[in-house]
Each structure stands twice: as C-alpha cells, then as structure tokens.
Design goal:
Elements (H helix, E strand, L loop, with lengths): L1 H8 L4 E5 L4 H13 L4 E5 L5 H11 L4 E5 L4 H9 L4 E3 L15 E2 L1 E2 L2 H7 L5 E4 L7 H9 L6 E4 L8 H5 L7 E3 L5 H5 L3 H12 L5
Parallel strand pairs: 1-2, 1-9, 2-3, 3-4, 4-5, 6-7, 7-8
Helix pairs in contact: 2-3, 2-9
C-alpha cells in the first residue's frame, strides 16, 4: 500500500488541492492540470459538489490519479472510494486510518508522536499544516528519528517556498492550492490554470 502511494506521489512535484463548487468545472479543470503536467489531483471534500466532481474526473480524465482530500471519517473514505478516488489525504490522524480501508490514506501528522502512531499502518504521511507546524525545519528534524517516513507537506505552501520543501530527502511532493486559485476556476480560465500547472510541474524534486 505504501509502495503505491510513493509511486503516485512521485508522479509530479506538486499535488493541486482543489475546492470544486460546480460539478461542471471538474473535468475542464482536471484536463488543464494534467495538460500542464500535474497528474495527481486532490479533490477536497469541502463542498457538496466534491464527490460528483471526483466521479466525473475519474470517468472522463483517465490520465489523472484522483485523490480525496479532507477525509476525516471512515464514512468519508468509503464515499471517496465509491466516487473513484484512488487514495485519500486527511488533515489529521484517527484510529480508522490504522486499519486497512477501501483505499490507502495519508494521515495528517505534525508531531513526532503522531508519526510514531501512524507508522503502525504505513510510512507515507501528509505533513499538515506544513508551515504553521514548523515547515522545513520541522521536517528536517523528523528525518533523523524517522528515516523511513516520507511526507507530502501541505498548508501554507506556495510557488515561492515549494522548492525548499522539495529539496528535503523525506519529501515526495508538496500539496497546494495556488495552482488552481478560485478566481481562475470561477472565470473558467483553464489556460491560465494550465500555465500555473506547467510552472509547478517544472519544480524539481531533489
């Protein structure tokens, strides 16, 4: 399970975190991001349209690896799997994440204690909220005692600081919403989003 997660998270250096309010935006948004070179797309379960958006992208954009975001319950995980998500991200760590579920999940961790608990089930985690939780310095510190752990930091990351995170040996990729800002989605500026995705995909993982 961790092997699959690592392979998916290595597909591109940035995972766009998508908040989709209109189902009709999902497919053109996903196509723009994939065309720009970002294949793993995190659809946050923060809107009424999120699950249907996932279904549409999974069905109509086969090049995309659809992930569910903001998964906070076992029910969320089941719904996301039925909607076509290949795996999921959570902002935190809960007991259901330590058991085998319908799809793999990256628990959200921010402390050494949380990493230790989460390692009962795997070795790939979301580091959240990345910048408020200590950013690059915290991840450097965690690498010493947890050399096998790998992270996708999310929260406060943008085009300016993403390279600092990507330079770390324990970071597989970063998550961020700057690649698909709401103003461009609302304007249906798919070309603008593709350009942002292309720039993000060009960021190099050390």
């Amino acid at each position: 399970m961790s092997t699959d997660l690592r392979a998916w998270l290595k597909l591109s250096p940035v995972v766009p975190v998508l908040t989709i309010h209109r189902v009709e935006d999902a497919v053109p948004l996903a196509k723009a991001l994939v065309a720009g070179g970002l294949k793993v797309l995190e659809v946050a379960l923060r809107t009424a349209a999120a699950l249907e958006a996932m279904r549409c992208v999974a069905a109509e954009v086969p090049e995309a690896v659809v992930a569910a975001g903001t998964v906070v319950s076992a029910q969320d995980l089941k719904r996301a799997a039925k909607a076509g998500a290949r795996f999921a991200f959570s902002p935190g760590l809960a007991d259901f994440m330590l058991e085998e579920g319908p799809i793999p999940i990256l628990p959200g961790v921010a402390t050494a204690s949380e990493v230790m608990k989460a390692m009962q089930a795997g070795s790939v985690f979301k580091f959240f909220p990345a910048v408020p939780a200590g950013g690059v310095g915290a991840l450097k510190a965690l690498h010493g005692p947890f050399a096998d752990a790998a992270f996708c930091p999310t929260g406060g990351i943008d085009a300016a600081n993403a390279p600092d995170f990507l330079a770390l040996p324990n970071v597989l990729c970063v998550g961020g919403s700057w690649v698909a800002p709401s103003k461009l989605i609302d304007a249906k500026d798919w070309a603008g989003i593709e350009a942002l995705a292309r720039a993000a995909a060009a960021l190099k993982k050390a």
